[in-house]
């Protein structure tokens, strides 16, 4: 039997498999790798309010192309009974990519035991979620029960369609069925996509807003001028008719 107190940490790591070195109070200490680092969700029979998290994906310029603020709850149905799991933002890892017309944001927890992925597309001046994928691998519901993974997706949809210069907001949340056994509840939900967080984008939005306001005001002024001209012509015609000789 090896005595860990007499072996230097580096030699111990080389001799014994599954040993890693960690710093503790300034000294190298051996530790054991285990599956304890993998977080496996636990289904709860009672529904709870999910913790709200903020998740973002940035492009190569460092500007956000996707921002999602939401609380996420998985609802699993087994034998007509609902079970619940809320996503913990502190355990979530965010991945994704930014394209000119397509963006993606993926939320996963350690061990990939739960994930939620959005594919977002831009069409003209609007964006929408074209595909949503989700999966959950929770701990078995009972002792002796087999491990089960729940997964599903929504495709060929135009979810949360919103002008690019605005964000989709829904305080009451959205409940989406991704499979017969799993639903995803997002409450509250706020989403925005395609270059929105930098000052240049804010200036573009402001410019667009001013342009729209200017067009509306111009149309109103033209309408008023048209009404005034018609009124003047009508009054002048009436005035001439009043002095016409019989």
Automatic annotation (TrEMBL):
Among Pfam families, the record links this protein to: Lamp2-like_luminal
Listed PROSITE patterns = LAMP_3
Q: Which residues form the Lysosome-associated membrane glycoprotein 2-like luminal domain?
A: 50-196
Q: Write the record's keywords in alphabetical order, separated by commas.
A: Endosome, Glycoprotein, Lysosome, Membrane, Signal, Transmembrane, Transmembrane helix
Q: Where are the transmembrane segments?
A: 212-235
Which compartment or compartments is the protein found in? Endosome membrane; Lysosome membrane
> Membrane topology type, per the record?
Single-pass type I membrane protein
Q: Which InterPro entries match?
A: Lamp2-like_luminal (IPR048528), Lysosome-assoc_membr_glycop (IPR002000)
The signal peptide, as residue positions, is 1-26
Any one of the GO CC terms:
plasma membrane
BP term (GO), one: establishment of protein localization to organelle
Translocase: present as a keyword of the record?
Answer: no
Q: What PANTHER family does its record include?
A: LYSOSOME-ASSOCIATED MEMBRANE GLYCOPROTEIN, LYSOSOME-ASSOCIATED MEMBRANE GLYCOPROTEIN 3
Q: Which family does it belong to?
A: Belongs to the LAMP family.
What's the name of the protein?
Lysosome-associated membrane glycoprotein 2-like luminal domain-containing protein
Q: Its encoding gene is what?
A: lamp3
């Amino acid at each position: 039997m090896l005595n860990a107190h007499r072996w230097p940490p580096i030699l111990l790591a080389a001799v014994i498999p599954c040993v890693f070195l960690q710093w503790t109070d300034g000294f190298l200490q051996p530790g054991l790798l285990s599956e304890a680092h993998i977080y496996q969700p636990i289904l709860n029979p009672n529904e709870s309010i999910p913790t709200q998290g903020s998740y973002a994906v940035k492009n190569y310029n460092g500007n956000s192309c996707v921002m999602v603020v939401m609380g996420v709850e998985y609802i699993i149905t087994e034998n007509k009974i609902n079970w619940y799991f809320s996503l913990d933002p502190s355990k979530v890892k965010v991945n994704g990519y930014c394209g000119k017309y397509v963006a993606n944001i993926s939320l996963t927890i350690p061990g990939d035991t739960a994930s939620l992925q959005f594919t977002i597309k831009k069409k003209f001046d609007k964006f929408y979620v074209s595909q949503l994928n989700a999966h959950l691998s929770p701990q078995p519901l009972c002792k002796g029960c087999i491990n089960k993974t729940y997964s599903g997706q929504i495709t060929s949809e135009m979810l949360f369609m919103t002008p690019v210069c605005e964000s989709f907001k829904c305080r009451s949340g959205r409940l989406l069925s991704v499979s017969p056994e799993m639903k995803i509840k997002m409450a509250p939900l706020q989403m925005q996509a395609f270059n929105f967080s930098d000052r240049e984008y804010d200036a573009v939005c402001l410019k667009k807003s001013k342009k729209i306001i200017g067009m509306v005001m111009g149309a109103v002024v033209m309408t008023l001028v048209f009404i005034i001209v018609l009124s003047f012509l009508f009054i002048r015609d009436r005035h001439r008719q009043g002095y016409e000789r019989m």
